[in-house]
Amino acid sequence: MATKANHKLPSGPSRVPIISNLLELGEKPQNSLAKLAKIHGPIMSLKLGQITIVVMSLAQMAKEVLLTNDQFLSNQTIPQSVSVLNHEQYNLAFMPISPLWRELIKICNTQLFAHKSLDANQDVRRKIVQQLVSNIHQSR
Questions:
Q1: How many CA atoms lie within 13 A of 117 on its CB side?
Q2: What are the GO MF terms of this UniProt record (predicted)?
Q3: Which of 87, 121, 91 lies closest to 104 in space, CA to CA?
Q4: Helix (H, G, I), strand (E, B), or coil: what is residue 134?
Q5: Which of 24, 41, 86, 132 is packed most tightly, with the most Cβ within 10 A?
Q6: Could you tell me the pTM of the whole model?
């Protein structure tokens, strides 16, 4: 979840100038975040380049935050790179809250994010994340 600088942020690891906490994520970000959570607690802030994020390590906590802040999170400013091609009309992340948006969220929860679906494509997701992390390391 991106945050503004004027909000009080939870604690997190100290930051290296310019690159911030990017190096701390390592080759397996999920493992690095789990280790950081043991030190800094289940809610922590990280700075990834110029972007400050808040990480929630407990699934129930993340779900609660997303459910209680759905209107704030779904009505974010739409980047020009998205709006130029009208992608905000078809991208769930940028759609305004509406009956269609709520219906799509229900479909996602019952079909895409169901345990059965997540288990079925776990290997594919793992490979994609490994490729992304590898690309980041190669670009350094």
A1: 8
A2: heme binding; iron ion binding; monooxygenase activity; oxidoreductase activity, acting on paired donors, with incorporation or reduction of molecular oxygen
A3: 91
A4: helix
A5: 24
A6: 0.47
Q: What distances in angstroms separate CA 100 from CA 24, 67, 89, one per listed residue?
A: 39, 17, 11
pLDDT (tens digit per residue) in 53-100: 888 888 888 888 888 877 776 666 777 777 777 777 778 877 878 898
Q: How far apart are CA 64 and CA 70, in angstroms?
A: 10
Q: Does 133 map to a domain?
A: yes
Residue 36 has pLDDT above 70, yes or no: yes
Same domain, 38 and 96: no
Token pair 């809610």 in the structure block, residue:
43
Q: Across-strand partners of 20?
A: 16, 48
Q: In which domain, by residue range, is 23 found?
A: 1-68
Number of structural domains the chain divides into: 2
Q: How far is CA 95 from CA 2, 34, 88, 100, 106, in A?
A: 17, 31, 6, 9, 14
